[in-house]
Amino acid sequence: MKTSANKLNLFSFTMIVVGLVIGMGIFRTAATSAKDAIDPSVYFSAWLIGGLVALCGALTYAEIGSRFPVTGGYYKVFAQAYHPSIAFAINCLILVSNAASLSGVALIGSGYLLKLFPGEWTDIHKALVSCVAIAVFYFINLRGLKLSSMAQNILMIIKIGMILVLIAALFFPDKYAVQETTTAVTTFSNMDWIKSLGVSLIAVSFTYGGYQQTINFGNEVQNPTKNIPRGIFMGIAIIIGLYLLVNMSYYNLVGFQQMKGEREIAYVVIDKIFGTTGATVFSAFLFLGVLAYVNGLLMSNPRVMYAMGDDGSLPKIFAKQNEKTNVLTFSLTVFAAICIIILFFAQEFEKILAFTIFLDCFGMVLSSATIFWFRKKTKHLDGTGIYKMKLFPLMPLIFIAAYLFVGTSIAIDDPSAALTGLGVLVTFIIIYFIFHRKK
């Protein structure tokens, strides 16, 4: 059992929350969110609501983690509160969703990388560059090369640095774009506004993702009753502040209407302030960040497959290790193949985004709903020092309602992505019962 000295203090936990959420999405999804917003009020509301939903979710998962402190908690809560088949299906969905996220982020990096070379680059070119990046790091991982925690820390510093550079662009008002407005944009009904908000939230939800991992820290924080809500509040507040400032920078320097047509939107901002050389350096750093993200997911997700193979949820071959390098060769190969298959069929970031978030909606709604089950079953833990959120059940209900809203918006806006997601879920449940009947 960890002593108080070995547990996370308030500052460390706050930085973990920030690190879990801030990824590479903010350099691309702002343009996607703007494209789906019929008005700037929709756009900025989506980013603010996304942050508030993340706050509700992070607090909910932190309490679940306090009440059920086990390694791999995000997977095991399903087996505990639902049926093992749901745990298996949702865990597989999470793996596919992670593969889709990796593919989407690789496409972001490819778009910025190809900005460095003259020519008309299509989505197919970006997908091919992304495939090459995945393949390169697949072979690196096969050799047993691991990314150190120091490299991850350096990556975090680079990401924060790039965000601060984008925010600094706000101090150049002479570079601001002229905001174009049209009568077609300003005439819309309340229902149009709500529909637009739902679709705009898809990209925002992707950018705010990661806070669900607070479920793994509920028992690792000093004085959890006070420090968990404080750390989450401060962490999410920092993230909302950074994201809103970056979006203000995009809005002011690119222009709301022009944002809709941009993909590598951060490149446009940096090019406007620091010129082509500055934009080139920025793009190179961002691509390095993407490569580190790709490598990190290629390392971590096969280990989830290993755990599932080891406990019998997946065939034992998933738990097989190379005797010389200790690499999880089969699991790594399967995960890399899933990433490339998603790239091959989707090719466009928006298609991968809708598919990823629709899959996430299942996991988010079902996992956060377990708080009601755990509150009832672990009542004896109340008053023992565990974290217990205030405003219950309002916060988990807001979180669940938000993801139901986003999932419904995806189903209306992109039925094929929703049907594919449902098909994947049903397929995994069928596989579970076929595999366990054979056992």
From TrEMBL:
UniProt subcellular location: Membrane
InterPro entries for the chain: AA/rel_permease1, AminoAcid_Transporter
Keyword tags: Membrane, Transmembrane, Transmembrane helix
- Which Gene Ontology MF annotations are present? L-amino acid transmembrane transporter activity
GO CC, one annotated term: membrane
Instruction: Kindly give the membrane topology term recorded for this protein.
Output: Multi-pass membrane protein
Q: Which Pfam families match?
A: AA_permease_2
Where does the source fall among the domains of life? Bacteria
- Segments traversing the membrane: 44-64, 85-112, 124-142, 154-173, 193-211, 232-253, 273-298, 327-346, 352-374, 394-412, 418-435
Predominant place of localization: membrane
Please state what the protein is called.
APC family permease
